[in-house]
Amino acid sequence: MHTTPLRFLSLFFLLTLLAACAGPAPSVTETAPMPTQPPTPTPLPLPQAGAYETGEYPNLFAKYLGKSEAETQAKIEAAFQQLFYGDDVSERVYYPVGSDMAYMLDTGNDDVRSEGMSYGMMIAVQLNKKEEFDRLWKWAKTYMYQTDGGYKGYFAWHCKTDGTQLAANPASDGEVWFVMALFFADARWGSGEGIFNYRAEAQSILDVALNAKELGGSLATNLFDPETKQVVFVPQLGENSKFTDASYHMPHYYELWARWADKNNDFWKEAAAASRDFLPKAVHPETGLAPNYSYFDGRPYNDDYHGQFRYDAFRVGANIGMDYVWFYPSAWYREQANRQLSFFASQGIDQYVAEYSLDGKPLAGHRATGLIATNAVLAHAADPEIGKPFVQALWDAAIPTGKYRYYDGLLYLLGLLQASGNFRIYEPGVTPRVEAPPPPRAIEGKFAPITGKALLLVGPDAEAVNAYFDKVVSAPGGVSLELALDALDLDALNALAKRYPNSVLSVGLLFSGQADSVLAGKFDSQIDSLLAALAALQRPVFLRLGPEFDQAGNGDEPERYVSAWRYVYQRAQASGAKQIAWVWHTAGACESPFGGQSPEVWYPGDEFVDWVAVSYREQVSACENQSLESVLNFSRERSKPVIIAAVPAAEADWMGWFAPLFAFVRANNDVVRALMYWNAVPARFDDPEFAKSWKAETAQPFWLRANPGLFDTLQP
What we know:
Layout: E1 6-9, E2 14-17, H1 51-54, H2 60-65, H3 69-85, E3 94-97, E4 101-106, E5 111-113, H4 114-126, H5 130-144, E6 158-159, E7 165-167, H6 172-189, H7 198-210, E8 244-245, H8 251-260, H9 265-282, E9 293-294, H10 314-327, H11 332-347, H12 369-378, H13 384-396, H14 405-419, E10 454-459, H15 462-472, E11 478-484, H16 490-499, E12 504-510, H17 515-519, H18 524-537, E13 541-545, H19 558-575, E14 580-586, H20 599-602, E15 611-616, H21 622-638, E16 642-646, H22 654-667, E17 672-678, H23 688-698, E18 703-704, H24 710-713
Parallel strand pairs: 10-11, 10-17, 10-18, 11-12, 12-13, 13-14, 14-15, 15-16, 16-17
Antiparallel strand pairs: 1-2, 3-4, 4-5, 5-6, 6-7, 8-9
């Protein structure tokens, strides 16, 4: 339920609906922008079947903009990470609670809504994020689900963040999205026990939806009107169940229920047909705009506010676009998409506002990212000349931030999934079940950031770090250099530490082929001098002993390497050094990982290692990806955090190499907690577009950069 202020007097009580996500009310624009002539479409052949039959999900970013799959996935991952794990105050809307629950926060109203919870679950199942899905579902079942009372079997539509219910009655859209997300979860992961028997939980909601009174809800009606078979605005005795909300009409969902539900399959088939019959009646014949609320015959609701195109109505376009992609019900969908998008094009592709009268008069002065997103999804059904500019507008849109990021942000992320062909049908018994990512284990490494954060380090020497700072004008979270035992340059170490007092240190101590000399005590004085210098700096230090020990030609042998590691470690313990995190750095080689041997033979042991590091090479092939994944899984098994040491080639570009790198780190943040960038080509930052992209990415709160409080935020 997404609403702005309105009061309804029901048979039982006054229901006050609060503004969910619109920004501060701006002044109303009295006249529309100068219209522009919409493009004349070149009709395309209408599809013969939808994705349910063909298995084909069009990617509009690739089709119209030429974007690669890597570019698309990087954009989706960036949106997910920001909205789920970004800054607490200005970016995220997903908030974990304890060890096994989470809620989606309506940041504009500081409450939790079934709408947002069900959207969050759908996003999680589409992205194979089982932990986030289960956390949200448990919070909803714990605090929103009505075990008794007048709305027994339904979910309270909004609550405080502590779980206290603010209104017991349900919102129809939340129930609908819960059902669909649960069916998909059953198909993707399989059902478990109790509340995690996803299929049983979906069926339970459907049972209540058609039998509310029989199942004990004395204040509730069915979710669908028995006569018209249309979804009601609120399943509540009185006025609120006598009209509907066009954005709640999701025939593509009901069509699946008709196939998958345990019972009432004919009803769900009829409900899908009823919605497809209703939508052409609900939209304006010239602008294509739908009102927030409608009567069952399609007439706009008799209310000055909700009888117009407002925030709820944004979603009508996305629903039409997805029904078209999944099932292609009729030629009307093409007509409607062209009509609605042509209207917005006439207002100016970068100018159209958030709210309109049905006949096209602007009723607000502000824009909304959520509408930009849903229009891009509607472009699936439009002719190319009409749809393409709306797809470009979504690609160019920034991830919503600030107080009103909740509704815009969720529609933005859903829009990316839907427009890119990544919003898919997962059919129970047909879709091969995927192995859900294991829940993240507790990461116990010394100085590890918390989940949702990662240290940004730069190396490999003072010259490279200084060049980076000169170009970016922002000190990284850590600075790195390599030192050799037989040429120990402590002056360089101290100079680097002095220039960057609020950055952690990363030191690679090279002793390739010298393990026997270390064990013989020939480098004791150098080791002791280094340990004393590190202790004097009084800050976290990541010490990589013999980095890339398994690189071909390094001359190391597993048994002597492990013995040398333990020798240096024990000498440090004897000296009382406490500020060192011990980092085991593998080359992550493709053809011969770990020198062709088991990683265990090189591994000093859990008690001697705090972190694992792995190099991310110039060109990441499928083989190297497999090697990277094996290192990450090795670390997961041992609950050790990981540093990705990124070594790009000189010709590496942003979208082809760097964007996938950042997406890789974010996607594996359960274990990857640091990125160490080798700035071997400082001139890369002379490219304005590259510099802009780098600064925009590393400015995200996900990345920990230098600041006076940085050291206190790291685990002891």
